[in-house]
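Re: the 120-residue chain
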Amino acid sequence: QVQLVESGGGLVQPGGSLRLSCAASGSIVSIHLMGWYRQAPGKQRELVALITSGGSTNYADSVKGRFTISRDNAKNTVYLQMNSLKPEDTAVYSCNLQIVAGLGALYDFWGQGTQVTVSS
């Protein structure tokens, strides 16, 4: 059994910063790809950022230069540092982890989602 717990969302003014965390626990053998996605009201879920087990990263054009994804493999945790936040960044942010668990099968796990609201 694997559980993901997200934290760090909230209300912030435009130009402000937030740091999201997503910690995995349970029967984890290894974690491959880690990512953050977001879904704004009335819109489809979109990829925000990805990080591979080797540390390579990929970002949506809309967040490049403002957001930074990182991971702590010892803690099975992925982070999203969000700077220079804009009202259009308002969304529910969810982490996605590709985890080798239990007997060695690869599974796709999602966090519960955390609300980020950017407003003055």
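The longest strand covers residues 28-39.
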